[in-house]
Amino acid sequence: xxxxxxxxMRVSTQRxxxxxxxxxxxxxxxxxxxxxxxxxxxxEFIEVETxxxxxxxxxxxxxxxxxxxxxxxxxxxxxxxxxxxxxxxAFISGLMAQRVPFVVAELGIDTDPFILHLYAALAEKxxxxxxxxxxxxxxxxxxxxxxxxxxxxxxxxxTAALQRAEELRPLLTELRGQSLGAIADELNRRGIVSPRGGxxxxxxxxxxxxxxxxxxx
Length: 217
Description:
single chain; alpha/beta; four-stranded parallel sheet; 12% strand
């Protein structure tokens, strides 16, 4: 009988939670990982909450529930990517102190706790470096008299578009090889929200732009 795992998925905003954006990509990654490793998904827990802060566990009841279920069934918690748990080293260390093993589909089943610490440390460092570069760029733009509101909005739009593309990458990888129109039809059939919002449907051009972002990232 295959070993069981508890699936845990998280998105950061209520909008993502309502639309399912990101959750389907995470679920696809976990299911593929489980099938490849001969694991069975015993249950899944979904969280709509930020991952920031070393005390984030207090605001994430679904993660608490996943840990409790894993302890009861004596099996690991499985996430698609490490950042679905946190980008904070202290938080990852705190989870390890719970004495519930967890596996990251992106990293593989044999990744030991030391390597997980390293990945968490790198993610935390990258987040700080991006924040510092953004602040420096905004300060320089302000000195030149640039209207910062437009810059901030443009950056937010680009970041959101790239994040959207990454979240849909597993699904688009699966669909690639079909025509752009066929991919658009499948995205609409699955209820994936288009870049323009829930009132608009996917079309060949929007699929082309999304695939282009993935190829450039």
